[in-house]
Structures are given as structure tokens and as C-alpha cells.
């Protein structure tokens, strides 16, 4: 039987990078410390921030909420029901159950109620995942801005980030590469976006959430089948298995060499419809969903300023 490196109790997890075995108590401490270090290293959070955690019902968002709560941060959660049949209903129900168990306030937005259709219910040549991503980012940010949150945490993890990085390097998408990283700073009407799980793999996160008796959605979204990121994930897993630590070195090396991918100085306009930052006259959200007046996502939130 493998024993915990720190206390000698039965090991709960045997890790390959770093190479060590840990019991339940020390594994939890290891993961939460790692998240805390990432938050500090990238200066993700500061005194007075109002934090919103975007929860999908999946393990990554759940781990983000669990760790931030265990580390003593205060925040509320947001779930977006994307209108993807049973998958979205299940995701909403599980998100509710998670937040109830954690004792955290949950806000829910329903895409169909807001714009009249769900993901996959519009006639377009665009792949559902592409306009879904844009829709989620817009709604998270608009909800944050309308309700006084200046930071949004998502559950993006090391596997997501390395797959994204690999895809964008393979296709030399310099524009995306320049905006890639653990944090995107805030600006006018744009909340700061942070990824506290930036250095944790799927496996690390699964082992972490298994420590707690909280359910999560295991199934992927039905539109994700065949996504390129899944292929890149498989390739990277093979490399990582043979050479543990490669994924972490990949993102760290990228961040060290960021100046190779400078961001263009883009001057954003105000969307003519919603007033949010936009590249064109009308932002991609209002254009795609054919809106002629802004969404008002303001809810009644009492912020405790004491
Ligand atoms: P994904 O883009 O599905 O890989 O999700 C990445 C992160 O975005 C999740 O860990 C959540 O933090 C957030 N997210 C994804 N889907 C939703 C949703 N329907 N509602 C709220 N947040 C979401
Ligand atoms: Fe958006 Fe799959 S979650 S298309
Ligand atoms: Zn131990
Ligand atoms: Zn707009």
C-alpha cells in the first residue's frame, strides 16, 4: 500500500508530476494551496473585488467554487441555461444542487427566455460551439457589469488551456494567442476574467471533487463530439503520460515568451444596441441574436460594503 508523503496514512492519490503519494487530507491541502498560489502569482484577486463564479454544473466549475469557498473567498455564482435540451436542464438542476450544498447564492439566466431560442435552435452556418462560446462570454460579462461584479472566475483548467494553445499554434492564430492566459484584465464594461484552475489537470480536479459529496454533470455537451480540442487533448495526454509535467511546462513556457505574440491595439466602440464594448457598430451578440434593444440583466443584489 502506498503511504502519504507527509503523514504516512493510506494514500488517496499517487501523482506522477510532482512525484508523490498523498492521503485525502494532504491531497486537499495540496490542491487548494496550488490554487491559492496561482491566484497570488497572477494577482487574480484583490481587496474589494466582487467575484462571480460561472458554474456550468461540470466538475471544473464545481472545483473552482469549492476551492474558493474553502480558501475563504466570498462570491456568488451564475449559471446560464443554454437551451440544449435535456443536457441544459440537467446542468441547471445540478448547478442548483451544488450551490445549495455549498450555501452560495446562485443566479440563473435562461437563453431561450432572453433571446427566444437556445443553442442549436437557430438557422446559421456557424457551428453551435462557436456562437455558444460568444454567447456565454457576453452573458457572463453583461450580468457581471449590470450587477456590480468586477471579476468572473471560470473553471478552465490545464487540459483546456494546453489543448487551446496547441490548436492555436497549429493554425498560427496569433490573435487568439495574444489573448490566451490565466487572466484577462478588466476594462470599461469588461469584468476581469480569471482561471484559478490554470495549473490543474482534469485528473487532479476529478480527484479533488471526489473528496466532497457534491454531484456534477459527467456528460459532455452533445455538440462537443468531434471537437478538435478533444483530439488535441488526446495527443497531449499521450505526451504527458510518457513525459509527466510537459503540459505545465508548455503553458509556463508560453507565458514566459508572451512577447512573441503581442496584442494589437484595438480601439473598441460602444455597441449601438446594448452599449457594451464592440469591434463593430453592433456587437457580435446583438448581431447574432438580432436584438434591437439591450438586455437588462440587473437583479436585486444587496452588496455588503461593511
Ligand atoms: P467550457 O467552455 O464548457 O469548457 O466551460 C469552461 C468554463 O466556463 C466552465 O468551467 C464554467 O466556469 C464556464 N461555463 C461553461 N458553461 C457555462 C454555463 N452554461 N453557465 C455558466 N458558466 C459556464
Ligand atoms: Fe455550448 Fe456545447 S456547451 S455548444
Ligand atoms: Zn497525509
Ligand atoms: Zn450589443
Describe what this molecule looks like in 3D:
This protein has 306 residues and is α/β, with parallel strands linked by helices. The protein has one domain: Rossmann fold (3-Layer(aba) Sandwich). Helix content is 42%, strand content 12%. The chain has helices at 24-41, 59-70, 85-102, 111-115, 128-146, 158-170, 174-178, 202-209, 228-242, 246-256, 284-288; strands at residues 13-16, 19-22, 51-54, 75-81, 106-110, 151-153, 183-184, 192-194, 269-270, 277-278. The strands form 3 sheets. Strands 5-4-3-6-8-7 form a 6-stranded mixed β-sheet, with helices on both faces. A two-stranded antiparallel sheet has the order 1-2. A two-stranded antiparallel ribbon has the order 9-10. Strand 9 and strand 10 form a beta hairpin. Helix 2 crosses helix 8 (202-209) and helix 6 (158-170) packs across helix 10. The longest helix is centred in the middle third of the chain and has 19 residues, at 128-146. It starts with 12 loop residues before the first strand and ends in an 18-residue tail after the last helix. It binds adenosine monophosphate, FE2/S2 (inorganic) cluster and zinc ion (2 copies). Adenosine monophosphate (AMP) is lined by residues 54-56, 58, 60-61, 78-80, 82, 136, 154-156, 160.
Amino acid at each position: 500500500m502506498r503511504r502519504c508523503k507527509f503523514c504516512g496514512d493510506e494514500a488517496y492519490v499517487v501523482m506522477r508530476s510532482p512525484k508523490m503519494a498523498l492521503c485525502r487530507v494532504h491531497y486537499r491541502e495540496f490542491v487548494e494551496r496550488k490554487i491559492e498560489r496561482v491566484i497570488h502569482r497572477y494577482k487574480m484577486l484583490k481587496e474589494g473585488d466582487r467575484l462571480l463564479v460561472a458554474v456550468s454544473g461540470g466538475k471544473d466549475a464545481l472545483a473552482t467554487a469549492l476551492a474558493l469557498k474553502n480558501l475563504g473567498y466570498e462570491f456568488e455564482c451564475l449559471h446560464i441555461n443554454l437551451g440544449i435540451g435535456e443536457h441544459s436542464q440537467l446542468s441547471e438542476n445540478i448547478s442548483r444542487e451544488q450551490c445549495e450544498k455549498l450555501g452560495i447564492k446562485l443566479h440563473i439566466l435562461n437563453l431561450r427566455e432572453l433571446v427566444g431560442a437556445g443553442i442549436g435552435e437557430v438557422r446559421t452556418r456557424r457551428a453551435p460551439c462557436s456562437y455558444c462560446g460568444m454567447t456565454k462570454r457576453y452573458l457572463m460579462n453583461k450580468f457581471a457589469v449590470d450587477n456590480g461584479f468586477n471579476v468572473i472566475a471560470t473553471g478552465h483548467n490545464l487540459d483546456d488551456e494546453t489543448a487551446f494553445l496547441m490548436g492555436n499554434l497549429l493554425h498560427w492564430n496569433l490573435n487568439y494567442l495574444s489573448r490566451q492566459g490565466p487572466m484577462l484584465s478588466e476594462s470599461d464594461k469588461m469584468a476581469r476574467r480569471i482561471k484559478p484552475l490554470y495549473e490543474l489537470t482534469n485528473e487532479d480536479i476529478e480527484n479533488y471533487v471526489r473528496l466532497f459529496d457534491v454531484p456534477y454533470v459527467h456528460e459532455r455537451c452533445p455538440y462537443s463530439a468531434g471537437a478538435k480540442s478533444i483530439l488535441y487533448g488526446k495527443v497531449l495526454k499521450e505526451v504527458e503520460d510518457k513525459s509527466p509535467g510537459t503540459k505545465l511546462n508548455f503553458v509556463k513556457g508560453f507565458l514566459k515568451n508572451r512577447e512573441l505574440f503581442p496584442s494589437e491595439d484595438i480601439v473598441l466602440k460602444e455597441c449601438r444596441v446594448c452599449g457594451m464594448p464592440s469591434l463593430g457598430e453592433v456587437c457580435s451578440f446583438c448581431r447574432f441574436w438580432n436584438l434591437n434593444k439591450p438586455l437588462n440583466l440587473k437583479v436585486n443584489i444587496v452588496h455588503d460594503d461593511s
